[in-house]
Amino acid sequence: MEQHEARHLHAVLSQARLPEYEVFCNGDKVAALRLFCWNTEVAAAFYGPLQHLELALRSVLDQRMFLLFGQEEWWDHPRVNLHYGAQAKIRDAIQQLGRQGIAPAPSEVVAELPFGFWVSLLGRGNNYDQRLWRASLYQAFPGYGGARHALHRKLDFLRVLRNKIAHHSPIHHRHLDADHQAIMVMLGYIDPRLAALVARYSPVPAVLARRPPPP
Questions:
Q1: Which region holds residue 102: left if phi is over 0, alpha if psi is between -120 and 50, else beta?
Q2: Is the Cβ–Cβ distance between 41 and 172 less than 8 Å?
Q3: pTM for the model
Q4: Between 20 and 150, whose confidence is greater?
Q5: Quick one: pLDDT band at residue 1, thresholds 50, 70, 90?
Q6: Is residue 71 classed as helix, strand or coil in its secondary structure?
């Protein structure tokens, strides 16, 4: 990237993010823009693995909750007792479907619920450890033999990464190789064959190898 290209991009791109990169690059505008562009590239590379994780987590937890409470609209079961944050997300999902003119069928509600909702089912909640985890949800992770809170902590860390990517935030300062490995480990807890497939086609390692050198 040449200086004239850097000046042009500075004029076009939002200044809200670029100063962060310039500070990281000791004021070198060209290096900052290279890092900015690479951050965009690596964020896009993470999209596929994170998407597989989100879809797999949603699928297995929905199945376990259905089996535990015996109805597709398990969130409406009188014994489910979700904490207020989860209840709010379900209301938001149903309202959003209504605004789109979509009937809030159980499958549609499930698809509308965000990643954070599913991660929260593995949190402390309203005695979730006894009522949800030990009763059923641990079976969604046949490759995992640890405690609920440790699994939740790992997933919540990936939720933060996912949200930073969704909001176009810098992620270049993270230990991205470890983040990528954590996604594969989590997928392996759910289904080792899925984890192997995602790892085989993930573009993340190649993009990490192309990280621009420091100024």
A1: beta
A2: no
A3: 0.91
A4: 150
A5: low
A6: coil
Nearest to 107 by CA among 70, 59, 53, 54: 59
Q: Which residue has the tokens 């440790």?
A: 150
DSSP-based three-state secondary structure for 67: helix
84-99 residue pLDDT tens: 999 999 999 999 999 9
- Cβ atoms of 32 and 24 within 8 Å: the answer is yes
137 Cβ neighbours under 8 A, 6+ residues apart: 61, 64, 65, 121, 122, 148
Cα gap 62→72, rounded to integer Å? 9
Question: Of 185, 212, 179, nearest to 198 (Cα)?
Answer: 185
**Type of residue found at 37:** C
Start-end of H helices in 70-191: 84-99, 106-112, 115-120, 128, 148-166, 176-190
**Average predicted confidence (pLDDT) for the chain:** 93
Confidence of residue 102 (pLDDT cuts 50, 70, 90): confident
3-state secondary structure of 123: coil
Closest CA to 25 of 167, 172, 166: 172
Q: What is the DSSP letter of 132?
A: I
